[in-house]
């Protein structure tokens, strides 16, 4: 009997096409695993009835010879930032805890039209602000990789931590994530899965709860490079409802997985090898460099001198945009309301009660840098430096085809360690991912090795604007060369 939980999307698609398994069987297996996996708190809202209806409809299409393609009948989960019609969408916040959209986000509609089976909405840091899911109003998600005592004490990363945990634990076959400053790539590294932040503008942001509009980008998370390629091809595309969506054709990403990168030039940025770098991460990075060299790629040392400014620039711009975006949550329309003696009191009470500490912190910081007297000193200057960071990438890609770097500065951290860290220290977890976010270039994280403590470590492959094909091509070769096929132990039921 095929172990349905351990299948990749591409493998399940082949079995479904041959009618060796049914979508109903596949969906039932994952719903059962979700029941056992509730200890991980990966899901905020489960939709088993809809999932079974979706699966039955898929099987009926196949029986009639009307299959929609590779994703038809595949059980997935959606990050709870994506608006889903008639299904609660909370952004992991109290203020939106009762919000049920009357419309569907463009990305989830694309997946729905491809015949996917929606298992539910997965956990995230509140409004995607955080790197551990600790800021979620619904409680933190647990990493399915356990500590030395076999306990679930490790963070799955964030903000797409629920997505990463669900995929790694076999609760779903793939999941949507969103990446503002590393929120797909860091949790992918922590949980030993693959995830890609595509080029900014490649996927529509319409219907996704906004954090920082010039940075937010939708992307897939799955267990292999090929699975991410399959998902992204469906998720991507021009959308006239999103003014930042770019009207450019979506390639066949799977066709890019040629297995051949001979002659490709891979850049290694010297600024990413920092003082005090985690020894395990450094070893895996060196391993990745050697794997690509052995595969016929040319390794090129490059310099990206403005990398050191990426973190402060990112947090100034992201918080400024968050301050603006979150002003709409005032208790007047679709949010949970806390009454007050006056309208101003109602605004104050609603936002104080509805937002968590981290969200409030970022709103205050964003409001400060946008205020009179500080706008030019902080926000305008940050935008100028952002341009310099983007120019670093542009110059690098004049001589290399892709860039290889760590995805996160450490393996997965424990919740206890994170609880003892101040907010600024936690922000350092984005040190390797924010530069490519600011530049808007595609970046894919995949597991390449293990730490001395037995935890997965991922690397990221960064490409030119709208050249996800090269990113997938290089990542596919590295995936096969690394041979990383480990999964966490099945979740304790």
Note the gap between the termini.
21 Å
Contiguous uncertain segments of 5+ residues: none
Number of helices: 16
| Second rung of CATH, namely the architecture | Alpha-Beta Complex
What would CATH call the class? Alpha Beta
CATH topology assignment? Amidase signature (AS) enzymes
The radius of gyration is 21 Å
Average pLDDT taken over every residue: 96
Task: Profile the largest sheet.
Answer: 11 strands, mixed
Order of helices and strands: HHEHEHEHEHEEHEHEHHHHEHHHEEH
Give an account of the 3D structure:
- The structure is a single chain.
- The chain is α/β, with parallel strands linked by helices and 493 residues long.
- It has one domain (1-493): Amidase signature (AS) domain (Amidase signature (AS) enzymes).
- Helices cover 37% and strands 12% of the residues.
- It has helices spanning 9-17, 23-36, 48-63, 106-113, 161-168, 185-191, 225-235, 279-294, 310-325, 343-354, 357-370, 375-396, 415-419, 423-427, 434-439, 468-482, and strands at residues 43-46, 75-79, 117-122, 174-179, 194-197, 217-222, 265-269, 298-302, 402-406, 443-450, 456-462.
- It has an eleven-stranded mixed beta sheet with strand order 1-3-2-4-6-5-10-11-9-7-8, with helices on both faces.
- α9 packs across α11.
- The longest helix has 22 residues, at 375-396.
- The two termini are 21 Å apart.
